[in-house]
Specification:
The complex is a heterodimer of chains A (354) and B (524). By secondary structure, chain A is an all-alpha fold. Chain A has ten helices and no strands. Chain B folds into five domains: 10-105, no CATH class; 121-168 and 476-519, TATA-Binding Protein (2-Layer Sandwich), CATH 3.30.310; 171-193 and 451-471; 194-296 and 444-450, no CATH class; 298-437, no CATH class. The chains are: A mainly alpha (354), B alpha+beta (524). At the A-B interface, helix 8 and helix 9 of A face helix 2, strand 8, strand 11 and helix 10 of B.
Chain lengths: 354, 524
């Protein structure tokens, strides 16, 4: 029974990953569309040589072309069905390019696929929990599974408050990589909990750590975008060529920085709580609340890095790109703490099950 | 041009200003993060003393160099301590003036309304028409009441052209921030006090034996710097039975421990006595001290008789589990008196014996439970070195002055015993019997008088953090300007003091409330 449920859980997880992969592609298409749109808008603002010649020939006094609503609709409709379809698609694409709101077709597909994938993922995690008859986050496989679920969940919920759908490519990409590594390296069958893990603190300490990680992941993505955006803004200022055209459709670097900060401080609070809860649990299980175990050391290092990040925002000369780098280093340390310290460092947190 | 000369006081002042600057604090924070890294790369004496010993063996050249740099005691090292002490000095230098400033701000009125609000955040204008003014209450007093109801502190100001309300809220943000930083200091102090006056000790107790909380009875003991014997609460713990369960059904986890429970009888402090249990996540609190079940293992009961049949040794000897899921354990038996020679034995205990897959003819254990136990002993005779008065560990045997009589590499086979069996010792020294196998519990006794304060300050850290990050501190102004036509221009604006993403919405909300209070409907 346990084995069947565990296998079923893995099947659902594969299905979720397939959906996520499709969503990832759709999110990436949306970014490409944004890039194209930025170029199109730019082209409309700065007329091309052909357009300029055409303008000369046109009689003076004709209404100035507006950006919006000038799709070639007055062209005679094609007669064949295929022709009609292709013209409909091309006009839709063009419409999308010019009018583009935050909900292009690819974006809607991407978000929909993510939600369905999340549902499958949730079923996978719940099945694993039922199979093990306990919370599904007691070894690295389960932690990866639940952790990626929470990352997607936080991303979906955060979108109710902030418009950050443009992070989809990053979030889905990260989840696919993490879950892929977990499938290859971390899979373990269901095994009972050793005595040290038999505590309600397992529920509290780990789930808050997962939540903190999810917020740090989003903050990391925003800080990364902030750096790219800042670079683009400087390029625009100095009239240099720009890469990553899609950035033109995203908020400016200051807005991204403020958003990253608000998300990272939620992560920081969760991390502070995890640290305290971990100390309380360590006191119960190991007879001391703090002993510089390797995992404790890295949890402390991450806490200090993010404390530095928060202070950097209030330090002259550190606001902006420098503080963004701290957030990026902080998240790199989070990944290191999970992927490397758990597996390769000697310590008491030896629960990877590997 | 000459630079003004700094005297010693001037230099001190300069140094203090540098230390307490935000830039220095940030630098020290990041330095602290970096300095903590080496402690995770090389084993630490505090958490992994065996790892340090092994590191010295594996890296004989590098280890002494690292040791000189205190890399095996990173968190008590001079350089790590210097960083965090400077950081805390910087912290103190920062919070003292801030506390003073905050205290004054809490007692002062909100500052005067700026002359021009147009440049302030969320600036907006509404007009109260002349005809509506007759029925409306006084606009500025109404604004004051509206803001007061939203927990603002308010002050009224007047100049030649206008009357205004200046309001401020969110003082709790700074309070939380100060509480957070003071609580960090509190944690550091509490850790220091707890470590100084507390103690940690370990004791191995075999089933049926008991342990008295006094210095001589410990196997190992780490007192704090200011420890005195008086800190040892008078109690004793008898371990009656140790229940251990291992997984037997799940093929993926055969032998995984499921439960360790020590059934104990405690006596004291005073005349109290009770039967209770100690489990891994459920320590025993007794006399202001916590007792933890940190480990367990097997203690074979061994009896040695001489050729005359007289018992010269009889004891349950704790065997220390090696890094092996089958719980193969290593132990030492020393018989100093009663035989022709002094005899020492190095024993391996296999709870469920099987042929070793690694070495032909050797034994191993395939399950940690007592399914088919075997005790195997290598026998040595000669000088145990116990007569010269130097204390010896019972968990080691120095074979330098001993001659090996049985076990590889000698031709005589190692002695092998199952429970109840008796075999002859080599060289006609006598006999040895394995009477049975008991379990032992490793109890850790930890006394930390300031532990509760660490927890209190930790909770304050979290509370302070929440308020300092989420309570918005903002100023809001409402200004009324008389117009020649008898109407009134109402200006609204705000100022964020710290992160405040909702400031604009707050200004609008205040303006809406004000309008509503004035007319019952929004003004134009």
């Amino acid at each position: 029974m346990t084995e069947t449920l565990a296998q079923l859980s893995t099947v659902f997880l594969y299905a979720a990953m397939g959906l996520y992969a499709a969503a990832f592609i759709a999110f990436a298409l949306d970014l490409a569309r944004r890039g194209a749109r930025a170029t199109a808008v730019e082209a409309a603002v700065v007329p091309s040589a052909v357009a300029r010649r055409a303008e000369v020939r046109e009689p003076v006094g004709a209404p100035a072309p507006t950006i919006i609503g000038e799709a070639p609709r007055d062209v005679a409709p094609p007669s064949s069905a295929l022709g009609r379809l292709s013209s409909r698609i091309s006009s839709k694409v063009e419409d999308d390019l010019v009018n583009g709101s935050d909900s292009s077709a690819s974006m809607r597909w991407a978000f929909g696929l993510t939600i369905v994938g999340f549902a499958f993922h949730l079923v996978a995690v719940v099945l694993r929990g039922i199979a093990a008859a306990r919370v599904p986050w007691a070894n690295m496989w389960e932690f990866s599974m639940t952790g990626t679920l929470v990352i997607i969940g936080v991303f979906l919920v955060a979108n109710l408050k902030w418009q950050i759908k443009y992070l989809g490519t990053f979030v889905l990409g990260l989840v696919l990589v993490l879950q892929g590594v977990a499938l290859l390296r971390y899979y373990v069958p269901v095994v009972p909990l050793q005595p040290a893990l038999q505590s309600y603190w397992l529920v509290i300490h780990i789930i808050v750590a997962v939540l903190g990680t999810a917020f740090f992941a989003l903050g990391f993505a925003l800080s990364g975008l902030q750096l790219l955006q800042y670079r683009r803004e400087r390029q625009v200022e100095e009239s240099r060529p720009q890469q990553f055209r899609f950035l033109a459709t995203l908020p400016n670097s200051v807005t991204l920085e403020n958003l990253a900060y608000r998300i990272n401080i939620v992560g920081f609070i969760a991390w502070t709580f995890t640290l305290i809860a971990g100390a309380i649990w360590a006191e119960k299980a190991w007879g001391r609340y703090w002993g510089w175990d390797t995992k404790e050391v890295w949890t402390f290092i991450i806490w200090v890095i993010y404390a530095g990040y928060i202070h950097a925002r209030a330090t002259r000369g550190w606001r902006g790109s420098r503080s963004a780098w701290l957030a990026i280093i902080g998240f790199a340390a989070v990944l290191f703490n999970f992927g490397i310290v758990n597996v390769f460092f000697h310590g008491l947190h030896a629960y990877s099950g590997l | 041009m000459t630079q003004p000369k700094l005297g010693p006081v001037g230099w001190l002042r300069w140094f203090w200003r540098q230390l307490t600057s935000m830039r220095t604090a940030l630098f020290l924070l990041l330095l602290l993060a970096i300095a903590a890294v080496p402690g995770s790369l090389v084993p630490q004496r505090s958490s992994d003393p065996n790892g340090v010993t092994k590191y010295f063996t594996d890296n004989p050249k590098l280890a002494p160099v690292l040791d000189n740099l205190q890399f095996f005691d990173v968190y008590t090292s001079v350089w790590f301590s210097a960083i965090y002490l400077l950081l805390f000095a910087s912290l103190i230098g920062c919070i003292i003036p801030r506390t003073k400033h905050h205290f004054e701000a809490m007692r002062a009125k909100p500052p005067k309304t700026p002359v021009r609000l147009t440049r302030m955040a969320g600036y907006q204008v509404r007009t109260l028409p002349a005809e509506a003014r007759a029925d409306a209450p006084d606009p500025i007093l109404t604004a004051r009441d509206v803001l007061k109801a939203s927990h603002y502190r308010v002050a009224l100001y007047q100049d030649a052209r206008s009357t205004s309300v200046s309001a401020e809220r969110g003082y709790l943000r700074e309070t939380g921030n100060l509480v957070f930083h003071v609580a960090l200091l509190g944690v550091l102090l509490a850790i220091g006090v707890g470590g100084g006056f507390g103690y940690t000790g370990q004791k191995i107790v075999v089933e049926g034996q008991s342990f008295v909380n006094s210095l001589p009875s410990y196997n190992s003991f780490n007192p704090g710097r200011f420890f005195s014997d008086g800190a040892l609460a008078p109690f004793s713990i008898a371990v009656n039975k140790l229940d251990v369960r291992y997984e037997t059904k799940n093929q993926d986890a055969i032998g995984t421990p499921l439960d360790y429970t020590a059934h104990v009888t405690t006596t004291g402090p005073g005349d109290t006595s009770s039967d209770t249990t100690i489990k891994v996540n459920e320590p025993l609190a007794i006399g202001g001290t916590n007792v933890y079940l940190l480990g367990n293992g097997y203690a074979p009961t061994i009896t040695v008789k001489n050729t005359a049949g007289k018992v010269v040794f009889s004891d349950s000897v704790p065997f220390i589990p090696q890094a092996d899921p089958g719980l193969t354990s290593l132990g030492f038996v020393k018989v100093p008196d009663g035989l022709k020679e002094q005899v020492g034995m190095i024993g391996f205990f296999y709870p469920t014996v099987t042929e070793s897959e690694r070495a032909k003819g050797a034994l191993a254990s395939k399950f940690p439970g007592l399914n088919d136990p075997v005790l195997s002993l290598n026998v040595y005779a000669g000088d145990l070195g116990v007569d010269n008065g130097v204390p010896q560990s019972v968990y080691s045997l120095n074979t330098d002055t001993l001659e090996q009589l049985a076990g590889p590499p000698t031709k005589t086979k190692a002695l092998e015993l199952k429970p109840g069996q008796t075999v002859e010792l080599p060289n006609g020294l006598g006999t040895i019997t394995l009477d049975g196998v008991k379990r032992f519990a490793t109890l850790e006794v930890h006394h930390d008088p300031a532990q509760i304060w660490v927890l209190v300050f930790a909770v304050l850290i979290l509370g302070g953090l929440l308020t300092s990050l989420f309570v918005p501190r903002r100023r809001l102004w409402v200004k009324a300007i008389e117009n020649p036509d008898g109407s009134l221009t109402l200006e609204y604006a705000g100022l964020a003091r710290g992160e405040d993403p909702n400031l604009l919405a707050a200004v609008t909300a205040a303006a809406d409330q004000h309008s509503h209070a004035l007319s019952g409907r929004p003004t134009t």
